[in-house]
Amino acid sequence: MRIAITGGAGFIGSNLAHALAARPEISHIRVVDDLSTGNRANLDGIAVEFSEGSILDPGLLDRVFRGVDTVVHLAALPSVPRSVRDPLASHRANATGTLQVLEAARRAGGPQVIAASSSSVYGLNPHLPKHEELRAVPRSPYAVSKLTAEAYLTAYHHCYGLPVLPFRFFNVYGPRQPAGHAYAAVVPTWISALLGGQPLVVHGDGNQSRDFTHVETVCQVLGAAAVGQVVHPDPVNLAFGTRTSLRALIAELESATGLRAAVRYTAARAGDVRNSQADNTRLRALFPEVTPMPLPDGLRLTVDWFKSVP
Ligand SMILES: NC(=O)c1ccc[n+]([C@@H]2O[C@H](COP(=O)([O-])OP(=O)(O)OC[C@H]3O[C@@H](n4cnc5c(N)ncnc54)[C@H](O)[C@@H]3O)[C@@H](O)[C@H]2O)c1
């Protein structure tokens, strides 16, 4: 089967491309990415047809989606703080971009469209764990753009019969997730700081919690969804119901690196949610065979990757 990945030069997209390249069912992988946050070198060593350009370009999408069985739509401007600084840019890439992807999928004859939404859509809703029927209360422009994107998938299924599968990713971490830029995620930022002998900066009191998922587990689910042509018009949480405070994450990172962390506490960030933990009943019903990688193992692999790159 033939697969197109939007945002395939990014962190999750490139891990997915490597995972799919190793699967016998997949004969051809196309990637479209404008390299705004991604890196072409992430795809080194595998056979992919790469097109540099934006998902906002319909002609380019028509070429990339021609004859594919599945589109895995990951292109977006991630990061809550980035969206707080520039909401229009987030909306264009994440909401309008998804609409362009769905229109191009429709023109291409209706391949399956799997897309990445985000746990951030639950926002201010305090209920834990988060199940998909809870009211979404987005508290950042990023969360609004993702809620819009997933709602478009559901609407395209109902209006045009497009086979869709919107996933809500929680905190994904692992190899190829970059540190050292203004909007970097917490795991790579802290591993990089620890290995570089720098203090770990905590926004808020460190008792906020997240449901961390290793990227290999996410790619297992995405691969199974594509190969099995799984369709579910309503969003599906993609996480495994763990709840790790940032303070506990520091202890895990100390054990994964064998280093002692110096910690500096600063003000909480606008738009950040307090606690995040998935109810994954829906995910487990659709993908009963997937076993998540435990956090200590995933962190050790991520630390090893950081040590291996120059
Ligand atoms: N990493 C996480 O924890 C997490 C959590 C929730 C949701 N997500 C979602 O998962 C997806 C992948 O995230 P990631 O962590 O790999 O981020 P990433 O920034 O590494 O990947 C996004 C990719 O999309 C590309 N891109 C951005 N705008 C584009 C455009 N207009 N046209 C073409 N390409 C464009 C970037 O260059 C990049 O390669 C995103 O949709 C993100 O919102 C990620």
CATH fold-level assignment of the domain at 2-172 and 214-241 and 278-292? Rossmann fold
Gross geometry: globular
Main sheet record: 7 strands, parallel
Task: Give the overall average pLDDT.
Answer: 96
CATH hierarchy, class of the domain at 2-172 and 214-241 and 278-292? Alpha Beta
Please bin the fraction of helical residues.
Answer: 25-40%
Cα-atom Rg, whole angstroms? 18 Å
Provide the CATH architecture of the domain at 2-172 and 214-241 and 278-292: 3-Layer(aba) Sandwich
Characterize this entry briefly.
With 310 residues, this protein is an alpha/beta fold.
What does this structure look like?
- By secondary structure, this protein is an alpha/beta fold.
- The protein has a domain at 2-172 and 214-241 and 278-292: NAD(P)-binding Rossmann-like Domain (Rossmann fold).
- Helix content is 39%, strand content 17%.
- The chain has helices at residues 11-21, 58-65, 80-85, 87-107, 141-160, 186-195, 215-227, 246-257, 281-286, 295-308, and strands at residues 2-6, 28-33, 49-52, 70-73, 112-118, 164-169, 171-173, 200-203, 209-210, 212-214, 236-238, 244-245, 263-266.
- The protein has a 7-stranded parallel β-sheet, with helices on both faces.
- The two termini are 36 Å apart.
- The mean pLDDT is 96.
- Bound molecules: nicotinamide-adenine-dinucleotide (NAD).
- Nicotinamide-adenine-dinucleotide binds at residues 7, 9-13, 32-38, 54-56, 74-78, 93, 97, 116, 118, 169, 171-172, 185.
